[in-house]
């Protein structure tokens, strides 16, 4: 699958950026070190000035790629979910049994992410940590409805609905497929957060994974 992913270009809604960062060495540097810096200091403390200092570039040069740091976070989130969409597609394409396909899909969106070395300037393991900690900040804003209309969250919704379609294969009579899947995808991020920071209010730990919890959930809900 990694070979196939290497030959694919992950596309992000062009309205999110001023200039596509994938088209230049500086743009890729902004993405690579933006991920590292957000992980190090958190999104609230992150600024383009700090990023410029880290990469040895003027703050103004970053604004040539992104209007503001919110758009950068939306870009990173869109890239992540597009990467996840490709993983889902190629992991489930040749599986005919619906429940096996669903188990595979749930595993992909809930498991601990490791870095894909085929994407040199993006460390998916670190990006996953940002998604766990910061993803809700991309849409819990006053601009959510307008940004949704402009398609900022289209890729994320496609991931959700791709799994919803599999749930409908497993149990066509289950009436809450969309709510179930969106709860699993967002809930898994929350469980990973709790496992790292608030361990006393989750059963997930080093021996019980987030994936095991959600596989058990769908088995009981959809049986």
Class based on secondary structure composition and strand pairing: mainly alpha
> What's the helix count?
11
**Strand count:** 0
Average pLDDT, to the nearest integer?
95
Query: What's the order of the H and E elements?
Result: HHHHHHHHHHH
Shape: globular
Give the N-terminus to C-terminus distance in angstroms.
Answer: 31 Å
Radius of gyration: 18 Å
User: What is the helical fraction, as a range of percent?
Assistant: 55-70%
Low-confidence sequence ranges: 1-6
Quaternary arrangement of the chains shown?
A: single chain
Biggest sheet character: none
Strand content: under 5%
Characteristic key phrases:
223 residues, single chain, mainly alpha, 11 helices
Describe it for me?
By secondary structure, this protein is mostly helical. 63% of the residues lie in helices and 0% in strands. The chain has helices at 2-6, 25-41, 48-55, 59-63, 69-92, 98-110, 124-134, 144-149, 154-170, 177-197, 210-222. Helix 5 packs parallel to helix 9 and helix 6 runs antiparallel to helix 9. It is globular and about 55 Å long.
Break the fold down into its secondary structure elements and pairings.
Layout: H1 2-6, H2 25-41, H3 48-55, H4 59-63, H5 69-92, H6 98-110, H7 124-134, H8 144-149, H9 154-170, H10 177-197, H11 210-222
InterPro entries: Homeodomain-like_sf (IPR009057), HTH_TetR (IPR001647)
DNA-binding region: 47-66
Domain HTH tetR-type: 24-84
